[in-house]
Amino acid sequence: EGARVLVYDGCTDVKDESKARVIEIPVGFCVIFRGDLIHNGMAYDRVNHRMHCYLTFRGLKWEPDVVSNVLPPHFECQYCGIKLEESNAMRYHRRYCLSNPKAAENKLKRRAPPKRKGPYICNVCEKPYDNDSSYRTHVARGHAKKQLTEQ
Prior knowledge:
This is C2H2-type domain-containing protein. By secondary structure, this protein is α+β, with helices and mostly antiparallel strands. It has 3 domains: about 1-65, no CATH class; about 75-110, no CATH class; about 120-150. The chain is built from 3 helices and 7 strands; from the N terminus they run βββββααββα. The strands form 3 sheets. The protein has a 3-stranded antiparallel beta sheet, with no helix packed on it. The protein has a two-stranded antiparallel ribbon with strand order 4-5. The longest helix has 19 residues, at about 130-150. The chain is elongated. About 0% of the residues are buried. The model has no long low-confidence stretch (mean pLDDT about 75).
């Protein structure tokens, strides 16, 4: 799987989102473009290695970071370096990232059994419930209305 680059076709000073275009770069291919092409890398699923080189010519005044400020918001995993565009996806990834020393512990916590087992018994009608959420829903829907009508 190759890398992807987001380019802003025809933009040289300011990016125009309407001109954004994704370009797939197959493995082994080389892309050469002028230094004033506004572009940025994109999030990727697997680690990929890329080389960035700058070609310069005598008499050409150009700074390598001239187009560096067009990156869309992205989030980077501090454990493995993968970049994702959504914070929720990154939060989930970080929690279970194989490079995270607490990943195994986090996985166990996620599957931990409930701390208190049922039955939950209603104080008013003595009806039993196996889980807490069903019991709370029963009390909120059923007995709140009954208590108001009895008063």
